[in-house]
């Protein structure tokens, strides 16, 4: 018996505003993502990449269409239930890092575990381990203001993966970083995908970064224009 | 889980030391101001009551002229009283226990190289009784002093200090104008009245001596009466008014040319003044509360951007809106409790200092403390919680995008 796909978007639309001024940020998206994929989404500015990420990440609800996550219909879920979905299955990495200021790397990474109800000692251990995984074992007591952009983004990645999610959603994770640091971040995401089987969905404007992915989705005007796999492209 | 929330809130409070400190400061100042002001105000009201009770609520005074409370006695054209009037009032009105005739003026009392301008009072022993003076040394007047108008006097503690330092004045002779008189008694100190006037600043001599040697006439300026225990002061005052009108031959429809006052009227007047004082103090306190509240609001508004992003982050990583709110609420409550407790401590401290300085009793009112505490909690919740609630209602995406 076939397992349902991890992510299944069926004719998803997201419309901002109504009538004359309505903006179709997503305009009939169909997309199926299996466990363990590493996907890059590209496209011109305003093509709906971030909107798609928000819908997939259960931060936003589509105006119409069906979204099944592990076979669960997300549209039927309440705010709180969607929060639970995020808590247990999803990890986010943002372009602007979005770490809590004046808060140590360790506590930032601990945050998702607090809401999972994990005890303090376990939490510390898990957060320290996640930080070690991204190469910041030495920096766990540093505040974000004491870390470089690349280091901050690594803290954000540690925070995204500390709760053992199935998917990591990264919206322009290297958008604020120089090429060398960007490559480090990409290597890290690639490693997580290869070694731990994490599904990674990433938005990027840089072809070099998109090259790390196995599958490239090209969006224009709220539609998927191209959906290519590396094997095919090569 | 609640314990965990409290622990996290305390952590968050210490992470944002400056913000927390400023928030607490606003509450501390507000609460301390209210408690200090109200406690001091209450203390001075208590002091007035105590003063009036010390003097006796059964004391009635009769002064020549009208509205003497506004104008003060002496500046009136109305005729003074006489010894005969005084004795008639005492004899004819059953509820009057005793009535002391008083004549007074101000003059310099001299002893050796020391001198002091003071109240020179002529009266008799009935005054000491009605006004509840006790002796510290020596004696009051004896019948011979009074009958022949001997040159003797009883002085108050302030005059003693000025003229004699800590030496015993009894037996010494002081000079007032052309009169040399022997000090026969020293009264026990009553201290300052509520408004700082010194009650111990006087020289008292037999009224006959006063008339002859100081005043040069036989006027009586005040009748100082004591109403019998158990009798109604009001009824006695009515009787006194009727009799006085009779004695001074005031026709029907004519105005009184004298005024009958009792201590209750004094008390009303005095507590009227302290009420105004308390009102003023409370206004000042209210202003500082307001200022404190505005300060807190400012700080909260400044941090709203930061907090909104924080809420966005927490929601994105899987917190439910009510969990975030609970955290913010606990944080706000803890902050205002800390502020409230510090404010109460500071307020009571200031009130003790103030009470000491004004030499009034320190009577903290638990109700006010409770109120101030409740207010601080309210401020914390309103200014800490409601901005957070607004933010938590946002979409996580919008909260994250908040600049
Ligand atoms: N909250 C909103 N209200 C109204 N319109 C919105 C809102 N968010 C996005 N849009 C519109 O939806 C469209 C898609 O936006 P989206 O942010 O998904 O683009 P994007 O592909 O991520 O662009 P970029 O590469 O610049 O990040 C845009 O036209 C944008 O103006
Ligand atoms: Mg975008």
How would you sum up this structure in a few lines?
The complex is a heterodimer of chains A (234) and B (403). Chain A has 234 residues and is of the alpha/beta class.
Structure characterization notes:
The complex is a heterodimer of chains A (234) and B (403). Chain A has 234 residues and is of the alpha/beta class. Chain A has one domain (35-64, 78-233): Rossmann fold (3-Layer(aba) Sandwich). Helix content of chain A is 35%, strand content 26%. Chain A has 8 helices and 10 strands. The radius of gyration of chain A is 18 Å and the shape is globular. Chain B is built from 14 helices and 10 strands. In chain B, helix 2 packs antiparallel against helix 10 and helix 11 (304-316) crosses helix 13. At the A-B interface, helix 2, strand 6 and helix 3 of A face helix 1, helix 11, helix 12 and helix 14 of B. Adenosine-5'-triphosphate is lined by residues 16, 23, 25, 43, 45-51 of chain A.
Keywords:
heterodimer; A: 234 residues; alpha/beta; Rossmann fold; six-stranded mixed sheet; four-stranded antiparallel sheet; 8 helices; 10 strands; 26% strand; globular; B: 403 residues; alpha+beta; 2 domains; six-stranded mixed barrel; 58% helix; 17% strand; elongated; binds adenosine-5'-triphosphate; binds magnesium ion
